[in-house]
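Please decode residue identities from the backbone states below.
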């Protein structure tokens, strides 16, 4: 006899129950050990979160805290600048909460991610003009600021400055790693808003006394550099260094070209059968670079894989796109 599976999805508008329901769908992702020759290398497969990425964690945490603080209600409009994953997570959660969500996006977002936003009932605001750094982030944030000034009952999660962003990783992803891996020497973490690396670095430094936290960025990003350049890969790097980084405990950083990041993605798939996104490929490429140089068989390292490869089929995994946009 087949087991009876109880439908635990709560009734609409019971928002406390909805948050509890989402707790069963977000977090506790698989910790995967790679077959790797230059040490013990692990990764967390964050595409297993219900809305498809690591950004499910801060989206849930931030909205829950906003609800508990009475910052959102039935008539609130949530608005946020997003390159894709955070917006998708917010869209999915807001749909369950019956709260309107407006994502502010730009041309770098993949077609799949834009369609998922629309599937969740959103009407995205698209910013098409590049800012002074060559990116779109600063102009996306201007749109959010103007909307907040013009609408009374509006709330922005503000992933670029909200400490709840990094606390989400401290209490969830950080604890999950600490509870499973006995000892860690290195953690490689791709950066954008700074939330992931700030929360993780704080928690991992508490638990693993000698761990080194390595940030991974892309050429043209302004987080560790003052040389802006046009970036075609979405989801990592940023046009500004957010205040969240002031609380991060970073030991070193690696800046990769977009071509090297794509090679990292290709290597993950061809050597390890892991079909992952650009930020994952970047973190793996950086870890491979450092661990090969160290060449210590007993070293323990982890890199974070923020999302899967489906949204990158038309870019990272499309040789024609890569040739036309990255290699020329």
């Amino acid at each position: 006899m087949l087991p009876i599976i109880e439908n635990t999805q709560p009734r609409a508008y019971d928002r406390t129950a909805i948050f509890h329901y989402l707790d069963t769908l977000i977090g506790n992702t698989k910790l995967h050990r790679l077959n790797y020759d230059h040490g013990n290398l692990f990764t967390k497969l964050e595409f297993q979160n219900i809305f498809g990425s690591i950004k499910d964690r801060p989206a849930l945490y931030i909205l829950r805290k906003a609800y508990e603080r009475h910052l959102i209600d039935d008539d609130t409009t949530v608005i946020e600048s997003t390159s894709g994953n955070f917006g998708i997570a917010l869209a999915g959660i807001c749909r369950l909460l019956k709260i309107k969500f407006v994502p502010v996006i730009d041309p770098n977002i993949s077609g799949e991610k834009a369609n998922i936003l629309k599937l969740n009932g959103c009407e995205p605001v698209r910013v098409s003009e590049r800012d002074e750094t060559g990116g779109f982030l600063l102009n996306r944030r201007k749109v959010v600021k103007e909307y907040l000034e013009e609408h009374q009952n509006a709330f922005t999660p503000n992933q670029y400055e909200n400490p709840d962003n990094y606390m989400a990783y401290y209490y969830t992803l950080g604890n999950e790693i600490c509870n499973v891996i006995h000892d860690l020497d290195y953690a490689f973490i791709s950066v954008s808003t700074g939330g992931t690396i700030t929360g993780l670095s704080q928690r991992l430094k508490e638990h693993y006394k000698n761990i080194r936290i390595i940030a991974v960025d892309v050429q043209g990003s302004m987080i560790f550099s003052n040389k802006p350049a046009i970036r075609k890969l979405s989801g990592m790097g940023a046009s500004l260094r957010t205040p969240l980084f002031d609380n991060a405990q970073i030991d070193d950083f690696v800046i990769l070209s977009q071509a090297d990041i794509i090679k990292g993605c290709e290597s993950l798939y061809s050597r390890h059968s892991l079909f992952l996104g650009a930020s994952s490929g970047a973190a793996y490429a950086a870890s491979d670079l450092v661990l090969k140089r160290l060449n210590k068989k007993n070293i323990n390292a982890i890199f974070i894989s923020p999302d899967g490869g489906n949204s990158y089929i038309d870019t990272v995994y499309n040789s024609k796109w890569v040739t036309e946009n990255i290699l020329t």
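Observation: The two ends are 60 Å apart (CA to CA).
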